[in-house]
Structure formats: structure tokens, C-alpha cells
Amino acid sequence: MEKIQLCSEIVAKAKNIVVLTGAGISTESGIKDFRSRTGIYNHAPEYILSMDYFHEHPMAFYEFAFSNLYHPKAMPNKGHRILAKWEQEGRIDCIITQNIDGLHQKAGSKNVIEFHGTMKTATCQNCGQKYSADDLLIRKQTDEKFFVCRECEADRDLFHLIKPDVILFGDAGEWFTPEGFEKILNRIAEADCLLILGTSLRVTPFSAFPQYKNKNIPMIIINKGDTPYDYDNDTYVIQHSIGRCLSEIDDYLKN
User: Fold this and answer.
1) Is 116 noted as a catalytic residue in this protein?
2) Average pLDDT value for the chain
3) Which of 57, 71, 104, 116 is catalytic?
């Protein structure tokens, strides 16, 4: 209770919070995380979620992705909704998320950086034609090569595969560029509070982001496991349910 009160006082004073979120915030919406003991796979994610595997086994990749990474029926939970509310109240500057489920936006958050991309859309690697995940699922019912773009021509299927707009191992994306990193690090450097939710902060480069906060600003970590930053100065750690903790902080803000 004492930690909740301290964190509540920090959030109450903040006007420029940057939020970092990981799989832990979406588990309360029924989405399994990646790397916990109950994660969605037991072998190396670097293999399945890689550009090499996608190019060599596009059908198997999509079977895995649609079964484990695409959750169109999942709904935002209390944690997502409170973050959206705090953004509307002018407390949150932006959310930087590792998640690809789109639940922050579904909850109403506007300033969301999807660092690892999204499963909602896909793009032809050759011509840039965009597809929705639902489009591909419909194509899949009648076309065994639904993952090959029909809007352009190429010598081999490999050259115009439709890839989900997620960042795979060996891949690059909008935020994995010098310009993308600069924008993110500038937002973090300007924050007056760093709020970290549901991530162990062990996967690079995302794990390095807290190092770029202003030395004197507080950092709140709500995660059921340990992180490398738990004992840093001005850091407040709560290993409990994100939805419950944010609800208690929000109740404090109302008073």
C-alpha cells in the first residue's frame, strides 16, 4: 500500500509520462506472453520468428502466426483503458510497446509507438501492396498460396511474399533506424516519469531504453518478474497485477 501511494503521488505530479509496455499488460486480456514459463513456445523464438524461417516456410510461419500472434477478438483490459484515460487527461506523452496486438489503440490511446510492429496488416515485399490480416485469412480459404502477392509479378514466389508488419529476427522496420531510435530516445529524455508495465526488460534494444531517461526522474516498474533496473535510484517496483495497481493509482488521482 505504501508503494502504491508513493507511485500515485508521482503520477499525480507528472505531466509527461512515457510508458513502456510488454506482454505482461496483455496477459490480463487472455493473450499469452512469449518468454515466461507459460509462454507460447518452448523452443527458440529466434528460429520461428525470423526472416529466414518466413522465407523458407511461409505456410508454416503463417499457421503459427495466425494461431499464436493474431488476436482480433481480444479486448483491452483495465490497464489499457486507464492508460488511455491518463493520456486524455494530459498525463501521458506516449506509449512505446513491444506488443503487436493493437490493444492500446483499441482502448483509445492515440500516441502509441508499436516498436515491434503489428499483426493487423501485412505488406508485399516487392511492390508494397498492403493487406489486412483479415484479407489474408479470407484468401487462405481458397488460395493455398495466399501469402504470395497477386498485384505484382516476380520471377519466384519468394520475391513477392506478403509479410506481416511485425519485426522478425533479421528484419528492420520503421523504428529500427537511426531516425526511429532518435525519436524514441528524445521522448524518453523529455519524460518526467517512466512507467514500465509487463516487461522484464531483457530483450534488446528495447531493454536499453530506460538508460536514456533523465537521471533524476522517477521510474515505476509494475511487473510480476524481476528486471535489471529494479535496484536503480528513484525506482519503485511493484510485482503485482498491472490492472489492479493502475486502478488503485487511478482511484488516488480521483481524490
Assistant:
1) yes
2) 92
3) 116
